[in-house]
Fold these 2 entries.
Entry 1:
Amino acid sequence: MESGKIIKGSLATVVLQLLENNGPMYGYEMTRAVKDGSGDKMKITEAALYPTLHKLEESGLLETEARTVDGRVRKYYQLTRKGKTESKKQLASLQEMIISLQQILNHRLQNG
């Protein structure tokens, strides 16, 4: 398994949590935050990020705002009230999954 990629099923949770922790962000900013935050060990490709952002927006979890920065229009994403609630739920679920995976990986069968 390639350690540089985020597990596809956790990408929505990562995006929601980034926005929860940092407020409005644009796409490239999110890819940099993951790369920098993981010490270059994980990354999100734009090909994976933007479909996820669009799905979250369609689900009512994100809203967007266009801002002009240095003469360029950037689309900023932010959590809706529903998105903040979902962010907490998904983070708790991901943390439970990580604990379960650790238990599975450390499990030793009883001889007998």
Note: The two ends are 33 Å apart (CA to CA).
Entry 2:
Amino acid sequence: MKVGLLTLEQKEEIQYQLFAPDSYFCAVLDGNGNWIITQPQMDYCVNPDYLWVKELPLIDWVEPEEEQ
């Protein structure tokens, strides 16, 4: 699965902000320590303040390891 790669600054800017009516960004850390958002969050973004997410680089999702 491909996901959008965020910088820490970008993550701080969009975290919990509306990307569409009743839909909020929720960035998470992947298994490589990258902040990411899902492609649907990118694709369905209609908030003019955050349309730049549609241009984020796509990377492969890496599942985080379970903590022991």
Note: The mean pLDDT is 96.
